[in-house]
DNA sequence: ACCTGAACACCGTTCAAGT
DNA sequence: ACCTGAACACCGTTCAAGT
């Protein structure tokens, strides 16, 4: 790497700055990206569309962000950094629940953010503005009697549950059978009731049950179970 | 839809069958797809590569599978259907743990299969050969005293945890910092220790802890917590 | 310093024509 | 009945040339 700041000769211009004037900025790009996602959905965010949105050439973007992954990471840090911290209860176990729920709700509202987190190994790519949520969970776990190492395991377990819930639910949201029927019908239709009796007994209400939000009660059960583990 | 079976006039040929002879088959396509994934990795499975592998034109594939999603689903059902059923213990709670672990281990070995499951709303798209794993968990939960409805919630919670664990770990596996350093360094480097003390205290061993397999103990804690929930 | 169009190396899928 | 090449409508990214 031989690049270092200020090594490039700069042609002076009238206004004291140098070179061709910018037609956009990183801030503008991020704002446009967010607008595009909110309007057309996450899967429509492509480098080319984003450029078109801004009225610039696709290649111009590469002067403001390293690549698409970099863009997504910037977007994510910005978003998580703006999540307001929750009111924390004094009971440590309940504090874990509230902290995790805050994380969950923030990411549920922006499920695409979670896809970035999953793909990128998440923690290492966030900056401090986003990592405070992790800190909350760790602190509460330590308060509940965990060693720092155990607290990390508690956090990870909760993170897996939370990430799975959001990802699966986000993707299942509007899935229908081939014919547009809700899945119950399909489920029932080709089910050998004699071989799978329990599945058969709930097949006709599966999609109703699957639509119910059970995140928090199950999370509470998980936290209780984790904190009650032997060997601590 | 005006298509119905046998409505197309068929030119007879010498061997008693009709039309141009096939150069491949669905079974051959699935076998080649699996080989391609095992050899080059899941992300290299594209319609065009798969066709090249088989020595046929990309468009020929569309006579044997509806589209790429259909191909993945066929692949997945085949795989899950071949998973051997586990030895089940008599204790219902432990039976949930063993059943879920079987599901987990099978999908861990084939993480790309899980991506399909997540994307496609999973359950409704599987056939009976794959759904027996769900049945095992439901049956065990009912044996443990759950109503069928509660059993579905138990299954879903466990599924979220399992799916999250596999997805996050599969994607985090080989993530390094920009400079190829393990993430601990990056984590430590830009960490404001005074603001995030608990995170700071584990930063240097984070990646070691994150590499530890904690699936089963945490699952057991989860199951214990779920079955101990009030209001049942 | 910043922007641009052309180009590269890909995708999944459709469709008319051939055997 | 099955196969084919050409074509469509896209991707992310690089690079030499322009202002």
Automatic annotation (TrEMBL), chains A, B:
Region (Disordered): 1-24
Listed transmembrane segments: none
Keywords from the named record: DNA-binding, Transcription, Transcription regulation
DNA-binding residues: 46-65
Entries under Pfam families matching the protein: TetR_C_1, TetR_N
Nuclease keyword on record: no
InterPro entries from the UniProt entry: Homeodomain-like_sf, HTH-type_TetR-like_transc_reg, HTH_TetR, Repressor_TetR_C, Tet_transcr_reg_TetR-rel_C_sf
Domain HTH tetR-type: 23-83
Record protein name field: TetR/AcrR family transcriptional regulator
Record organism: Kribbella capetownensis
């Amino acid at each position: 790497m031989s690049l270092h700041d200020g090594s490039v000769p700069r042609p002076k211009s009238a206004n004291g700055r140098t070179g061709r004037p910018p037609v956009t900025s990183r801030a503008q790009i991020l704002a446009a990206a967010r607008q595009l996602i909110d309007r057309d959905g996450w899967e429509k965010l492509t480098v080319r569309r984003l450029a078109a949105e801004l009225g610039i050439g696709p290649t111009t973007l590469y002067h403001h962000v390293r690549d698409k992954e970099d863009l997504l990471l910037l977007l994510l840090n910005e978003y998580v950094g703006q999540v307001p911290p929750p009111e924390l209860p004094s009971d440590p176990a309940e504090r874990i629940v509230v902290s995790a729920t805050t994380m969950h709700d923030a990411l549920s509202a922006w499920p695409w953010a979670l896809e970035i987190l999953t793909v990128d190994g998440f923690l290492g790519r966030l900056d401090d503005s986003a990592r405070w949520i992790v800190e909350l969970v760790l602190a509460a776990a330590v308060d509940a009697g965990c060693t720092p190492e155990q607290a990390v395991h508690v956090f990870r377990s909760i993170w897996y549950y939370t990430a799975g819930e959001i990802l699966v639910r986000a993707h299942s949201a509007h899935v229908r059978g081939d014919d547009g029927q809700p899945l119950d019908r399909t489920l029932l239709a080709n089910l050998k009731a004699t071989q799978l009796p329990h599945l058969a007994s709930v097949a006709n209400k599966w999609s109703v049950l699957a639509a119910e939000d059970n995140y928090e009660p199950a999370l509470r059960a998980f936290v209780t179970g984790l904190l009650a583990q032997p060997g601590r």
